[in-house]
Design brief:
- β5 and β6 form a beta hairpin.
- The chain starts with 16 loop residues before the first strand and ends with a helix.
- Helix content is about 45%, strand content about 25%.
- α1 (about 40-45) packs antiparallel against α6 (about 160-180), α2 packs across α3 and α6 packs across α7 (about 205-225).
- The protein is of the alpha+beta class and about 230 residues long.
- The protein is globular and about 50 Å long.
- It has helices spanning about 40-45, 45-55, 60-85, 90-95, 95-110, 160-180, 205-225; strands at about 15-20, 25-30, 35, 110-125, 130-140, 140-150, 185-190, 195-200.
- The chain has one domain: Trna Endonuclease, Chain: A, domain 1, CATH 3.40.1350.
- Strands 4-5-6-7-8 form a five-stranded mixed sheet, with helices on both faces. A three-stranded antiparallel sheet has the order 1-2-3.
- It has seven helices and eight strands; from the N terminus they run βββαααααβββαββα.
């Protein structure tokens, strides 16, 4: 198995207090402000689509699918994090579908190196959002925001916009916190049939622009329900 080089972040990233409620997940910045998570802001754009999907498949089936997806993703993320950290015994002990997905994705994961952070807290006082990034490291030699995804079936690239918007937010937050610019955004997906997908974006500006609009939409919605 590969040994990854860990260079660490350009400066210390402070851990953030968090809370989750009906309005989503929030993080408390060092200056005392509570910022919505990027996941909450981005997820707001999918509310109507989710409601239609729930109506189509039924709430019970929808909840079953959500729980299965969450379990699969959480377990897979844990294996990937252990692998990159070098906790190989934990990786070898992993079982079930998440372990199968990891083995399918390992060749792609091995393109990562010079790791800055894994599962790290970030926030932006400019954008007033926060979150935890999966990974910031070099991918094929370029510093990247790397997002690890599991899925039942691989998605068309046109369906991945929300992933890149979220990754662009992390890129902005990392630059704001450290002064280091991330070169590209990378979504690494693995499907239950073992297929993998790597989608890279070098132009972050369109996604930052979309993020700013989605933040406005989210704030407007929150103000309207007070």
């Amino acid at each position: 198995m590969k040994t990854f080089n860990h260079v660490g972040p350009a400066c210390e990233l402070q851990e953030l207090e968090s809370k989750t409620g009906e309005k989503g997940r929030f993080y408390k910045s060092p200056n005392g402000n509570w910022y919505p998570s990027v996941t909450t802001v981005v997820g707001h754009q999918s509310i109507e689509g989710i409601r239609k999907w729930e109506k189509r498949v039924g709430w019970t089936e929808a909840e079953k699918i959500r729980r299965t997806s969450s379990w699969r993703g959480t377990k897979y993320h844990g294996i990937v994090e252990n692998y990159i950290k070098g906790n190989l015994e934990a990786v070898k002990e992993s079982t079930g579908l998440p372990a199968i997905l990891f083995r399918a994705a390992r060749e792609v994961l091995d393109r990562i190196d010079n790791v800055h952070v894994l599962e790290a807290p970030l926030y932006s006082d400019d954008l007033c959002v926060a979150g935890r990034v999966d990974c910031i490291a070099e991918f094929d030699g370029d510093l990247a925001i790397i997002d690890f995804k599991t899925t039942k079936e691989l998605k068309q690239e046109s369906w991945l916009e929300k992933y890149f918007v979220q990754e662009a937010a992390y890129a902005y937050m990392y630059w704001e916190r450290t002064g280091v610019e991330v070169k590209k955004l990378v979504t690494l997906s693995v499907a239950e049939d073992g297929q993998t997908q790597v989608v890279e974006k070098y132009d972050k500006i369109p996604y930052i622009d979309t993020l700013c609009q989605w933040i406005k939409d989210y704030r407007f919605f929150q103000e309207s329900i007070k």
